[in-house]
Amino acid sequence: MESREKEVVVAWLRRAKESGLLSELKEVTIDMWDGYAEAVKEVFGDSVRVTIDRFHVMKNFQDRLNEARREIQNNLPKEKAKELKGSRWLWLTNPQNLTPEKRKELEALKKKFPALGRLAEHREALRKIFEDGRVKRPDMGEAKLLQWIEQGQAMGLKALEKFNATLKNWMGKITNYFVARNSNGRTEGFNRGLRAILWRACGMKNFENFRLRVLYAFS
Q1: What's the chain's Rg over C-alpha atoms?
Q2: Torsion of CA 4, 184, 219, 199, to 10 degrees
Q3: Strand, coil or helix: 29
Q4: Prediction pTM value
Q5: Is 90 exceeded by the pLDDT of residue 6?
């Protein structure tokens, strides 16, 4: 589509619904863009479940996590803060994606900087909620997430409060994930391909030319 504006999405959904293309639609997974949620609601009412993609939730948290990390570092003495130089990647990477040596390095930093250690553990706790196969209903997911929010509030970090507000605002659609555990992974894969086409062309101003290039690349 030429844009992601709500009116454009609504028009496409209406055409697809009337043609029968979406006659079996039960769920739509989206990122945290109001226009998508409102468009689905306008065309399908409550007959279709709207789910916020869990990876977009984690990405949003990663951004806030980085702010919170800087918030803690800014309160450290200059000499102590210097010891953290170059460690950003360690704090933001999932532990299972680190080499054994890097995991040891991270654990050492956690002990040396307990506030940052608590923040890292808080991040892992959020990821584990989404990966816990025992959570099978939205209400169970909401209870876990509200408990997680409460635990994090003790850290008193402004960046976390921003994320908590986002989480509460989208709670119903985020916890819909626990119904079928669907995500936007495949769509994001296509998006990377689209960005690669734009990058190779140094940008494309004509939408129809871009659309033809996409159809050629992805059949």
Answers
A1: 21
A2: 60
A3: strand
A4: 0.87
A5: yes
